[in-house]
Batch of 4 targets.
Target 1
Amino acid sequence: MTERWLWTQKQDVGPSPRGQHEMPYDAARKRVVLFGGANVLGRLNDTWEWDGRAWAEVADTGPSGRTSFGMVYDDARQRIVLFGGSDERTLFGDTWEWDGEDWTQVADIGPAPRGSFAMAYDKVRRHVVLFGGSGPGVNFNDTWAWDGTDWTQIADTGPPARRLSSMVFDSSRECLVLFGGEEGGTEADPTRTPVNDTWEWGDDDTGWVKVQDIGPRNFISPKMVYTGKHTVLYGSPEPAGRGQTWEWDGRVWTQRQNMGPIASVHPALAYDSQRDRVVLFGGLNRDEGVPTYLGDTWELAIVEPPPA
């Protein structure tokens, strides 16, 4: 028997429905932490925590309301790091940290202000890594690292310039994994083109290496987490129906599930290592062409087969 990948809806109460929010797992405090995003009321700046049973709002001050930002957990420093994003008028280039009680702005210089980039924490090199994203009329392909004090650009080559990629750190293979995104959508290249290539960064001397050019297709804003054993991706290639769940094993992509959360773009995904569950919240569903913000919470359990 093989593993079973099982999605279960947990809650439909908690944070207001939204999309383009972020939601890392705070391993020290054993909480999934959600911030920001947008819905019909505009940009949001509330902070919530999920303990596996219920949502609780823990702050309504901190970074200004925004979407398309990056937010990851710095395991060594036990802080959640937030960078960039945008509101209705402004692209941000500020860096904030959440210590479990308060938000503190810790930098206002670093990468150019941008949104829709990929961000992950590298446990080997002990820094936050940022790739790509978009600014006024341009997509980026630069790579930056945050060490808790300063941002440093570490590459300007690798994947072609893009926005809406997803990135995780595979601890077992000690490499960053970056998938997909969208090229174009700028004044110079107005055509928006989803891409489905996979890149890895495992060696500082080599930098980014393209390892696969086939996989899930036409995902507008894929989301990935690493569970300690599985690189899990959730995405939606179509505006209706159900989302898809895929796994990257270091060589190929395999679809594991096409049932569970309703198809959505711009949801948030986290891995609760204490409870061994992948948690998904929100997103934007476009069923029948009518955009609807979602406010449901789902969990994915990967169930091992019983011993022979």
Target 2
Amino acid sequence: MVRHGQSAWNLENRFTGWVDVDLTEQGIEEARRGARDLEAEGIRFDVAFTSVLKRAIRTLWLTLEELDQMWLPVHRSWRLNERFYGGLTGLDKAETAAKHGDEQVHIWRRSYDVPPPPLDRGDSQHPIHDARYQGLDPRLLPDTESLALTLDRVLPYWHDAIAPALLDGRNVLVAAHGNSLRALLKYLEGVPEDEITGINIPTGIPRLYDLEDDLTVRSARYLGDPDAAAKAAKAVADQAKTK
């Protein structure tokens, strides 16, 4: 699985959530570098899954282009979207921390089951106004999400789409977002609720899972330089600190 490369709002340090921002030039290079790490491992894929947000889709495109596997079947689902940040959507993370305090923003960003304030359904940024979700029951669309709620919507897609591909013996690539992937990581690796809050997924660095026949994890690791992965994860953790 790979988290999308740096996005425009990552660069601006804003809560992005379901807002459909694109990759920066750095994000494009991160995606290509991650693909080169996959190629160096000799990994080939049979099927790919991603969200309906362009930063993840473009990361997948760039990865498949580098691997010369652009023909690969690709499945997109809103269930792999980033966590929906509710009323925090679009706000500067550091400025929000200065206003509400580092501790409160840390709770909103990293607690397992405490969601941010909800976004009013009349707000233009609410997903009920986005054409890509018009075919869904509006009751499925969140007003805000914690990581626990994100996991609740990701897991059905894991069980219904991703896991069957793996059980069929196929190598799977999932290109998604920090929190949808953090939710999957928690599930796959059995990370306790009080520990998942301290785990940050770096942008553009693939995490390779080797699974048993029953899909329990045999091993998991980031590709490339371990120090670079640790540094990138720390940069994610530092985003919401006050300026």
Target 3
Amino acid sequence: MAEIEDKLYLARISHLSGLPEETLKYIEELILLKNGNINEEEKNLFFNSLKTLINFRRESWRTINALESKEKKNKSNLLPRVTELKNTLSEEIKQYVNKGIELIDNKLLKDNLSDELKVMYYKIKGDYIRYIIELTSKDKEEELNILIEKAEENYKIGLNICESLSNLSTTKVSLILNYSVFLYEVVKDYKNAYLLANDTYQKAIKNLNDDNYDLSLLKDLNKMLNVLKENIGKWAETIVPEKVENIASDVQQDNIEPALA
């Protein structure tokens, strides 16, 4: 018990000190000591530290990836160093992503969890695999297809479980938001991305009206619904006219209200 308390204390002060690497180290040790039976605070420390470490590197990778394209075009003699730096960042991202997935699979994802937690874990796994897809060269078709299948499998498992959750559940809306983006940007399934996002948005808004929720008090949900709304409008405008006509027909058949502009 004392060792567990010490690890949690060290994770807390590392987090407060802005040291995500150290936070992750101590909280990972704590997860192993507790065999994955962590509380809300410990879960937040784990995933927030991972998020910080991954997102910082993803932003850096995108910047360097753009620079690499520029250096290739200019036939720069610095291209090998730029590529090396990009590859280093790619490996670091994969290391953190794989660490997260491994701990979810082996320690955190248990049969006795609430549906809310299970959905959250499957969403995170889908997101993490999507990050690796972003890093993978388009000419590695077989590898990409395997990753896409794995990401979709996790999103779909989460989607099936979240049928039991309220249409106003932030976990449910967050999963569907990310899955719809995955369908649109990665799978290029524009029609189903649009329909899924629109259906989720309309159901949430209807429940808000029926239950007289004050959306201003639901900060996280409000943000997600605004992103869904923006995506619906943007996707309707960017899909080719023939597909827009098909979508409009499907929306009418499914009794889904048109997306708001």
Target 4
Amino acid sequence: MTIDIRERTIFTLPTGTEPGASTRTDWVWCGAIALLAWVGALAYLGRYRPNQVAEILYRMAPSDVLFWGALGATLAVGLVALATRRRAVGGAALVFAAFLAGHPLLELVYTFLPSALRFPFRDLDDGLAFARARFAYGLCVLVPMLLLWALAFGRGGWPPLALGVGDWRVRVRDLSVRSAPAPAWRELIGGYAVFCAVLFLLIQASVGFQPLLRGTLWPVLPAVLVAAAANGLVEELVFRGVLQPALIRAGGLTAGLWVQGLLFGLMHWGLSVGMLAALPTSLLIGFGSVMWGKYALDTRGLAWVVVAHAMIDVAVMAAYFVPRS
């Protein structure tokens, strides 16, 4: 059954007996699946991107034990759910297991990439190398997930995979029920673009505006744009395109939207160097991801959130991915 939440906000999602509402059990299932995926992915990626959260996990068990244990546990959750006739939960768990299984495949594919990543960017080739790496990640993770999705869910059901462009003309609400619904395109080029511009200046301030004052940003701006577009596209395909619909099927709209946002924020927190310093930003990312998830549902596609994601990434990369002197 199709559920239209365009008149709702992320704070007024279905509750109680409304279609799409989530019970406590739904939250537990979704939370357990997302937590296992987070532990497994962080245990694997932490070997290549050292950080404090991964170090804490490695004190409990070696990275291989954590990764394969999380993958096995996710599969077990799926099998238990299927055995107890919770088909949607079982299907979601299998899709998340496929997400984890794509990481060893990614390691193999990376060995065949023509060039290593280089930071800060020096020219367009560096941006293209980053884009190739992100597309490799997307390919390795998405293919197993789509295969398991087809096996678990087939073609029917709601929500479907959100892999299309979508309709930006639909009228939606974001945060306040007091504000009148507005076309999605107006929200993007209006308030959201202003927010990204302010964010750009705030992040530039954190590096003393060096990329702007010294002129080091402009020669590598094409590389930044390419990298931001690739990163936005791939991450939205994975998280809002496949993982979010799986969670919504497993636990309803409310749990599905908020758990996917929490997972996305925790992924950024877990891969950040400073555990405490990165926590506020990661929580903001998670909150924003709930909004992005709703826009993906509202527009029935990913183009809006891909553009929004890329705009944020431009603001970040324009400070941290370019030379400062």
